[in-house]
Amino acid sequence: MVRETVTTAEPGPARWISARVRILLWLLVVMAVALAAVAMTTRSVLVRDVDHRIARLLAQETSEFTNFEEQGFDPETGRPFTDPDRLIHVFLERQYADNDEELLGLVAREGLSPAQRVQQREIPVERPLHKDGAARRAIFETDEATGTLHRPEGEIRWAKVSVARHGGEPEAAFVVAFHPGNELARVDEVFRLMLAISGVALLMTTGIGWAVAGRILKPVRTVRAAAAQLTEQDLTQRIPVQGRDDVAALAETFNAMLDRLERAFAAQREFVDDAGHELRTPITIVRGHLELMGGATESAAEREETVRLVTDELDRMSRIVEDLLLLAKAERPDFVTPAPVQLAELTADVFVKARTLGERDWQLPEVADGEAGLDAQRITQAMVQLAQNAVQHTTAGQTIRIGSRLGGRRVELYVADSGPGVQPQDAEVIFDRFRRGTARRGARTTGAGLGLSIVRAIAEGHRGGVRLDPPSGMDAGATFVLDLPLEEDR
Question: DSSP assignment, residue 80?
């Protein structure tokens, strides 16, 4: 017999991070990534909107100047403009710049740097374009119609329309300049605000996540604490089940496991105690006779009788051990291997084998006709054991009936004898291990009380059962029935 024990692992000095901390860390990482992604996406959208708005503004201003150049008239002469300087001057007088926007007219004078005409109020930048001669010159001299000027004092987005006198070389240009620094600063302010809000959200998530994780993992900690308190002597600890989530299912599964363990240990202790009790008697008998052997006055006949008694007790111990091993194997899933069996053939084989057990009036009153999924060898073993039990509780010439019948989707195989029957107080215990009923009249109570336990184990291995039917009349004997499902119900 293999002895099972429950051991608990003591936590070592170096422990992994707890599940609660891991859950919280993963939650914070996911939240931080999500919030950072939202903040970065929002900033990108705002920056893109600023770029689009600046591009529309530059396109609108240059389009208005181009239309004015093509369709406008000098208010002094009433005729189209012929002087670029006059064109820019009149146009700028009629314009009003937006915030962070500069409208400039650059006029090239022979021997002079580009001059300017400005329609712009002061804007809050470190160095506006109309005060930066190098920047004005770079814009005037480039062939590009739009662009971005990067300066230490700040970035400038610009667009220009070149103006030439009578189709000659450009000698003036209308320039729209926009300083996006303030707009981008507001975008950055929104971005920083979102980061601050995200930080507060992470702090709140930390507190809430810590509390929620603790509440969710509380049953798990209870499971761990209960497992740590388990010993072979105390398997009564159970975990309270609350809710209907996965953790509650875990607690229910753990409680079911503890129920199985408690039953297994109880059965094991009872089994070992009973086995020890049954084996102690033959061992004592063998030891006593062996100690008496070899005396000076012992005759050959006495020695032969001692050897016979010792051999008989050793055989009985061997049968007990074999039965114990068989019952231990009954706990394995491969204890029975069902296969299609013809019930009539199986019943007839059992009847033929049982007739050799003793001189009785053997009868085969009925035989089931059909097929069932059974382990023929195990069923034969159980039926022969029931027949042997009937032989032990009957005398020569008494009737023993063996048969089988179908009932619905089940099959019943039975052994009935005409012996003294089973006392009512014994009907509930005769199938237990090492339990014998009070002696039936005239019964020879040999054996260790494992035969009917083996029969029950075989029946339960087929997902069926064994029962003792009540007697139908006075001194009607005992009828043991194997009640088994057909293969379709298995």
Answer: B
